[in-house]
Write a structure and sequence with these properties.
Blueprint lengths: L2 H8 L5 H12 L3 H16 L29 H12 L12 E3 L2 E10 L2 E8 L4 E8 L1 H4 L2 H15 L9 E5 L5 E5 L3 E3 H8 L4 H20 L2 E2 L8 E4 L6 E3 L6 E2 L11 E3 L6 H4 L7 H16 L9 H10 L5 H4 L5 H10 L11 H16 L15 H10 L6 H7 L21 E2 L8 E2 L2 E3 L6 E3 L11 E3 L11 E6 L6 E6 L7
Antiparallel strand pairs: 1-2, 2-3, 3-4, 4-6, 5-6, 7-9, 8-11, 9-10, 12-17, 13-14, 15-16, 18-19
Helix pairs in contact: 1-2, 1-3, 8-10, 8-14, 10-13
Length: 505
């Protein structure tokens, strides 16, 4: 495996200890290769540190809030540094070996660490129960947009009461923003997939049913999650395993103005719906497409859309049919493939129309299996064939390619926010005010006849992370400097936003 292959495989492994072990094994005795991959992974992790700030790009897909007993940090040094930073906000504790006290919570240990903050296991002295506390990164807490997002996540999740959604007990802002939620001993679905690969049929149906039931509860109060993926699905320990949907940081009400803003993209590319990838208005059916992508991965052991870079992933989401599951896992029941196919219809009108419908269908299939009956195949729309995908591509030569490419025909460029990290500074030339960790920019060239801007000299590969983007007019706008990184006319390449003021949507 080369540097790129190892990196792409490594970022799909959420547990830091497992990821480090995989990288060391893949690199073998090649120390230079190991250093190169570790540098890429380090930059990849740093990309999500600037959420919803004027120069922010990456969102929360890299953030791993792992609420499990067996979570291991990247290494002892990083683990120690995280604890020391956390201790600054704690009062002394009388419990030997515990970290300290925050209000009436006794903090036992840090169990998760992500770009947005850290998660600690704690004991609520008032209610005498074990809880998880998510403490916001102090650097992010000092700025308004990330602080608002943190509070929005808590309030959004708290609005939904359901057994398949992580319960939020309280949210506090002193001495630093933190939210208190139920403690989930177990692992994420992503960790399960990393360990086991494709799941057995009963597990696929039961986990899928519970995800759908949780989504139905969120949709019932007019909320769209927008970031359903294996790492946001928690699985409890014990014989009666239960699914818990977590991370409502991107959730929005259906009538939220931010969902109808042209060009806004939020989600994780490999799992988002086509309309989400195109920056179009969303409704609850976007979550159903993501659910289909998760079911696809549970069945096949791999995400439905993979490519060498983010733009290529998004293009596949919009235009391509995923590889038939039966080609990957022989003997996959046709009725299961049919359910997944309908969930992943490019046209949302052809998908299932409610999460509750999906939950009921998966439950019925599970009952049929338990009674040794073959589930009734789903009659309905299927994922577009390669011919249909080709037809779609041909049609877009005369019609707008969704909001992203359509808007580009009348704008100087399109902003697609990916990563802002210290590594970028080595290739840039001209200062940009107020741009954290990126000091210079250069090599900008606008074609003038077409719809793209080229920035030369960058080599960037980050195919999996949560993204947010916005489109701004080039005519007298002070919202930001915008650029497309590519080899020509948007066919392939990378997207990057370069801000010099204003706020990202």
């Amino acid at each position: 495996m080369n540097e790129r292959d190892i990196f792409l495989s490594a970022i799909e492994i959420t547990d830091p200890g497992e990821r480090a072990a995989f990288v060391k094994q893949a690199c073998g005795a090649d120390a230079d290769l190991l250093n190169q991959v570790e540098e890429l992974l380090k930059s990849h992790e740093q990309t999500s540190q600037f959420l919803e700030t004027p120069a922010a790009a990456a969102d929360s897909a890299i953030e791993q809030t792992v609420l499990s007993d067996d979570f291991e940090g990247d290494n002892d040094s990083e683990r120690s540094n995280g604890e020391e930073e956390f201790r600054r906000y704690l009062q002394p504790t009388t419990r030997p070996g515990w970290l300290g006290r925050l209000a009436h919570y006794e903090i036992e240990e840090i169990i998760g660490r992500g770009a947005f903050g850290i998660v600690a296991k704690a004991f609520d002295e008032k209610l005498h129960r074990v809880v998880a506390i998510k403490l916001m990164n102090p650097e992010l807490a000092a700025t308004s947009p990330p602080r608002k997002r943190f509070l929005r996540e808590a309030r959004t999740a708290a609005a939904v009461s359901h057994e398949n959604i992580v319960a939020i007990h309280s949210v506090e802002e002193d001495p630093i923003p933190y939210l208190v939620m139920e403690y989930i001993p177990g692992q994420t679905l992503q960790q399960r997939l990393n360990e086991q690969g494709p799941l057995d049929l009963n597990d696929i149906l039961e986990i899928g049913r519970q995800i759908a039931a949780g989504l139905a509860a969120a949709h019932a109060v007019n909320l769209i999650h927008r970031d359903i993926k294996p790492s946001n699905i928690l699985l409890t320990d014990g014989p009666n395993e239960r699914v818990k949907i977590s991370d409502f940081g991107l959730a929005r009400a259906v009538d939220d103005a931010s969902l109808t803003s042209s060009g806004l993209i939020a989600g994780t590319p490999m799992y988002m719906a086509p309309e989400q990838a195109r920056g179009e208005t969303l409704d609850h059916r976007a979550d159903l497409f993501s659910l289909g992508s998760v079911l696809y991965q549970m069945t096949s052991g791999r995400p439905p859309f993979r490519a060498g870079n983010t733009v290529a992933v998004l293009k596949r989401v919009c235009d391509d049919a995923p590889r038939p599951i039966s080609d990957i896992i022989g003997g996959t029941p046709e009725w299961l493939s049919s359910i997944i196919s309908r969930l992943m219809e490019k046209d949302r009108e052809n998908r299932f129309q409610s999460a509750q419908e999906v939950a009921d269908l998966l439950a019925a299939c599970r009952r049929d299996l338990d009674q040794d009956r073959k589930p009734t195949p789903v009659i309905g729309a299927a994922v577009s064939t390669s011919g249909r995908a080709k037809q779609r591509n041909n049609a877009t030569q005369t019609a707008p390619k969704g909001v992203i490419l359509g808007m580009l025909m009348t704008l100087a460029a399109f902003i697609f926010v990916t990563v802002i990290s210290p590594k970028l500074a080595r290739w840039l030339d001209t200062p940009i005010p107020r741009l954290p960790q990126v000091e210079k920019v250069g090599g900008l060239r606008f074609d003038g006849r077409d719809d793209w801007v080229e920035v030369t000299g960058l080599d960037w590969n980050y195919p999996q992370f949560t993204i947010e983007a916005f489109v701004t007019s080039a005519a007298g706008s002070d919202n930001g400097t915008i650029a497309f990184l590519g080899s020509g006319k948007g066919d392939e390449g990378e997207w990057m936003s370069l801000f010099d003021g204003g706020q990202a949507a």
